[in-house]
Amino acid sequence: MKTILVSIILPTYNWNHNWLSIAIDSVLNQTFNNFELIIINDASTNNIEKTILEYKKKDNRIIYIKNEQNLRLTKTLNKWIDLSKWKYIARIDDDDIWCDNNKLQKQVDFMNKNPDYWLCWTSSIFIDMNWKEISNFISIESDKKIRKKILNGNQFLHSNIIFRKNIIFSIWKYIDNNNTKYCEDYEFWLRIWTKYKINNLNNIFTKIRISENWISISNKFKQTYNAFRLAIKYNEYYNWKLFYLIWIYRLSIITISYLLKKIWIYNNISYFWRKYFLKQKI
User: Fold this and answer.
1) R_g of the chain computed on alpha carbons
2) Which tops the pLDDT comparison, 69 or 73?
3) How far apart are CA 195 and CA 77, in angstroms?
């Protein structure tokens, strides 16, 4: 029996059956087949389990795990790191698609040929809930270039990456606290790059779905603020001075958006209250 080379992790919670099926199919259709697909159901309350079990019956590469209680993303991510046993770890979210059937093969080939690199990723195509392509995101290619830009913000998405399992023995896992809330992946990447080389294969694409579940404006401020603090914390490793200006600009935009939303809500509530409850003529 051959040794499995890649552990692929797919966490899901109360997600759409059809989209989850498409994500799973995009993994099972890969030309590289020496992998295990660990699907973690984070205590979903819908019947998504039925879909997962149907796939498990058809393909013995699938390992199914169900959390007894909802652990949420960060704790679930750390759980799958513990569960994965093999040389490389890859990720796909339940609403994303590996649209290149050779994606995994190309990434494994690169990692095997370049032992001094510990993580590589791909570029992205953003799609909406109706499958319409919104934009392409071409990531910076070389390790040297990305080190000059990484403090500007997170460039990479989970569904794009593959990394060596041995990373966790030196940098450990995702940090789960209020200081990394909504950007625990950014902190994880920053920590990896303090010790290891990385690379982007920008001729491969994954489709990343922009859904209604993406982070709200109020949480976006918290995410941006925490990411800014992480950039300050790790600046000694990357030494990029101008990132302050970029993050101050982003925080300003998020703050303005948040205030405008609050004003819009206040004005509309006030309008309906005065018109329909106080019976004022407006």
Assistant:
1) 21
2) 69
3) 21
Give me the mean pLDDT over the 259-282 stretch.
52
Beta strands in 140-247 (DSSP E): 162-164, 197-209
Buried b (16+ CB within 10 A) or exposed e, 7-46: bbbbbbbebbeebbebbbebbbebebeebbbbbbbbebee
Q: What is the pLDDT of residue 89?
A: 92
Q: Extract the tokens encoding 271.
A: 């309008």
Max avg pLDDT among 4-18, 20-34, 74-88: 20-34
| Dist. CA 69–CA 268, nearest whole Å | 38
What's the rounded Cα separation, in Å, for the pair 27 and 99? 9
Percentage of the chain exceeding pLDDT 70: 82
Count the neighbouring beta carbons within 10 Å of the beta carbon of residue 91.
Answer: 20
Which CATH entry fits the domain spanning 6-214: 3.40.50.1460, 3.30.565.60, 2.30.30.100, 3.90.550.10?
3.90.550.10
